[in-house]
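for the record, two folds in this file. i put them one after another cuz i was lazy. first one right below, seq on top, structure tokens after. the second one comes after a little note so u can tell where it starts
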Amino acid sequence: MGGQNSKPPEFLSVLANKQVKVGEKITLQCKTNIEKLSATWKKNDQKLMCVEGKHTIRNIGTTFILEIENAEETDEGKYTLILEHEKGSGSCSAIVIVELNEWRRIDWEQEMVIRELKSFKISTDSVKELRFLLCGPIGSGKSSVINSIKTVFENRQFINCLAASEVGQSFSEHYRRFTVGSGKSGCLPFAFYDVMGLEAGDLKGVRTDDIIKALKGHVPAEYKFHPLFSITEDNKHYIRSPSVNDKIHCLVNVVPADKITLVDQRVIQKMADIREAASRLRIPQLVLMTKVDKTCLMTKADLSKIYRSRKIREKMLECSVRLGIPMNCIFPIKSYHDETQLDPKINCLILNALRQMILSANDYVEPCSGKLKYAD
């Protein structure tokens, strides 16, 4: 008396994560120690609503199977099987990732893009270097972006620009200027300016009016920002009559893909205020969406599939809605963090974003554009 059904249910094998392409069949299965169990399938913690011709649920002895025909992007998610028996219950889960058709193309030939950018010439002789200001919340990875850009062109790991941790205080208390290249390899006509991370409170982080003054060219490099008061005309460091070479030519918003949902609305509002000022000055704006590897398993495993990822596209859409910036101005990237060797795929994502940044900034300073006369 008793037999196998007197035992509590146990999994002899569990559901395995799956990555499939659009149109392929998804099969999830696991094996238990006993038969005749009550089985419930869930998707994203909600009971799976089976559609005829789409879902098939069956069990063969102690093997429980879910089949999903003709995979679509909406089939992506976490699937859980719950098994119940009078002696107990158990569950196991698996992640299904649906690889979409590529919805944005980029150039994966890094050497060609590096040569193109190294030979780039600014369209006007009056501008000595294109200036980019990186702005975003604490922990977004602004300093890591600058390190990574320098890494690409130096062809070695560059860890000279301090990067803040994901929590805590920003390292960038000063208005730091970073160039690309060296006396040996040749300096490129680009400069990146890093500021303190934006914070929710009014007494923390860099002030929005200071960033706006930096956009206009009133703030010199190495100026130390103060959270309580902004730089004014009577400050000895204040640039009263900035030239075109003092001004910012492109505003680069940096946001973390894995935390965009959690960014405080007060920080988003500060970014909106800065963007509005940049728009009035007709300064071009782009978004670098960092830490893509922390938000998508498929992208973490293979960066070349970043534009086949439903999760990345969703994060870009969310970023577009929260910041009010078009999708084609948002560039998902991964910065160097724990790598010890250079990675061509990391480089290519950075290079393609940088190329657009440079082209946008160059359009802004183009003498015939008529934009600079508004940037006072």
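(here's the note) second protein begins now
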Amino acid sequence: MAPQGSRAELEFGGPLGAAALMLLLPATMFHLLLVARSGPARLLGPPPYLPELEELWSPWALLLCLTWLGLQAGLYLLPARKVAEGQELKDKSRLRYPINGNPIYDFFLGRELNPRICSFDFKYFCELRPGLIGWVLINLALLMQEAELRGSPSLAMWLVNAFQLLYVGDALWHEEAVLTTMDIIHDGFGFMLAFGDLAWVPFTYSLQAQFLLYHPEPLGLPLASVICLINAVGYYIFRGANSQKNTFRKNPSDPRVADLETISTATGRRLLVSGWWGMVRHPNYLGDLIMALAWSLPCGVSHLLPYFYLLYFTALLVHREARDEQQCLQKYGLAWHAYCQRVPYRIVPYIY
């Protein structure tokens, strides 16, 4: 059997790895939701109870979910919106339809790169809107519930809400930048992105707020100020690196990036080797991880559970960086080797 399209080297452990992840990810999400509201809140321990089937089904919850998706779809289709062109794909903007494949692996990673009905792009729609905005609304609902239980939201809850609202607001404000991400350019729209965008993001990324509702954490102003500073540093690195990259991609002659050093590639593009991208190969990931730490610190250090996001996100970014490394090597060849020699560290300077 011939290799499946351009996927001669399967990712995520191939069909067996994909099957395991499709079972493990939903189970992990439910485990986190159950232990977050339990007294012990043990990340590595079994959940204190398993809900009855009646607790897992509600027609009103289903209606609310469908209404939420419909509302976001309606907003997405509004004609008064900016239209941006995406990056040129490997196949010169022609969709790929592999002949051979494994149904489990293809269901996980997605056969179609950009499934569309007219102008409605399912992957682009799910990438930012229902999950990210839903994450903010879940956080806000938890803040309001804490106010009902204790008279007012705690400082820790305010910080978590503010930090994560800033992150989501930044993603929506710079929505066009998502067109240059691996999710849009490389990955198909399968279980991995659909489940990740619609379920994993809103319900596991709000884990800190869920934890604080059931396990209040006293937080003084001095420590809160330090945590705010950590988040500010992370956001400064994250936004600075992404803005520099996006500015350079749009217009390398822009005065803000014109003086940066670059390396020529066989594709005609140039790789930045100074500025943020001369510090490490993925400075935006470094900023992401620093912010993830700041989101967890308001929950204290007595439980590992609030730090699940930091641990998971570290593993995700290391894995994503390895995938990106392989793709850049195939795309840029000797130029990428030269870049790696100039910028030896991947995410954290002098460490990794």
